Amino acid sequence: MSFRAALRLSRNIPRVSRVSGCRVATIQPFARILIPQTRTFMSTPIKFDERSKNVGEILKSEISVETESEVDDQSKSFQEFLDKYDFSVIETPGKNLAEIVRKTADGETVHVFFDVAQVANLPYDAAMGEASKETEDEQYNAYGENFANVNVVVAKEADQSTISIELLMNLSEGAFYVDSVTPFANADAALNESAEAEVKRELLYHGPPFSNLDEELQESLEAYLESRGVTEELAAFIESFSEFKENQEYIKWLKGMKSFFS
Questions:
Q1: C-alpha distances in angstroms, 24 versus 9, 16, 18, 206?
Q2: CA nearest neighbour of 174 among 231, 134, 132
Q3: Residue-wise over 26-39: b if at least 16 C-beta within 10 A, else e?
Q4: How much helix, strand and coil, in percent to the nearest 5, is found in the chain?
Q5: DSSP E strands: which ranges in 104-262?
Q6: Rounded mean pLDDT for each run of 10 residues along the chain, 262 residues in total
Q7: Left (φ > 0), alpha (ψ -120 to 50) or beta: where does 35 sit?
Q8: pLDDT tens, residue by residue, 131-141
Q9: Taking phi first (over 0 means left), then psi (-120 to 50 degrees means alpha), and beta for anything else, what does residue 205 get?
Q10: What are the pLDDT digits (tens) for 188-241?
Q11: Backbone angles phi, psi at 256, to 5 degrees
Q12: Which among 106, 210, 218, 243 has the fewest CB atoms less than 10 Å away?
């Protein structure tokens, strides 16, 4: 409890006087306690109902605006990518995390994970690279905020050996930067969503910074990722799909709120 809150609370506690070592609460005049409060008692629930109804009406209006702005072919903006690279969307209703999966001719399963809320709320600025009056520090901070985390997990069907590649996606550039590469003995170790499995992954050695690797190794890993569909087209897909899914989840959230305030 803050000091100010404690101070306000203390004002409501009856004053105490000491008599022979005992505490005696000072009683307020009886007549003042019995002042009729009927009007206040009756108006409070009415006011509560009005406030609740007001919230409900605003939510109803917002739902109408959002649903009317939906376009039937909205998914076409990212469907071409799914068809071209044979990716499938894994439905994750009610979650920010999105996942797409594809199987390659080489017997690999490629999983791509990204946070739609993080992507949809990136401070995209097409003119970020242009000169401005901002200080160098301000430009650096704005540039850093323009990245989203993308995780690519590739599992071999033959022996279940798996590799997890943490990427940083720059929305304004449509480019990916490798942050770390971690091998796993099997797919479950890399994909298990339990809290225990996540802690184990956090404690693993993730290798040196990617930029510290041999340049030839860096280039070969980047080429490998590109062959698995990690391209500028993937960045464009992630952007459009994130906007689509985030809007769908927002409408569901509005309807859930409306259900409470109706």
A1: 19, 6, 6, 67
A2: 231
A3: eeeeeeeeeeeeee
A4: 50, 20, 30
A5: 108-115, 147-156, 162-170, 175-184
A6: 39 41 41 49 62 90 84 72 94 93 95 95 60 50 75 96 97 92 96 94 94 96 95 94 92 94 86
A7: beta
A8: 444 555 554 45
A9: beta
A10: 999 999 999 999 999 999 999 999 999 999 999 999 999 999 999 999 999 999
A11: -65, -40
A12: 106
The one-letter amino acid code at 171 reads L
**CA separation for the pair 145, 142 (Å, rounded):** 5
The owner of tokens 């791509």 is: 112
Structure tokens at 170: 């720059």
Distances (CA, A) of 108 to 118, 154, 245: 28, 6, 27
> For the residues of 135-149, what is the DSSP string, one character each?
-HHHHHHHHHTTEEE
CB 172 within 8 A of CB 197: no
Task: Report residue 245 as tokens.
Answer: 């899914």
Q: CB count, 10 Å around CB of 165?
A: 22
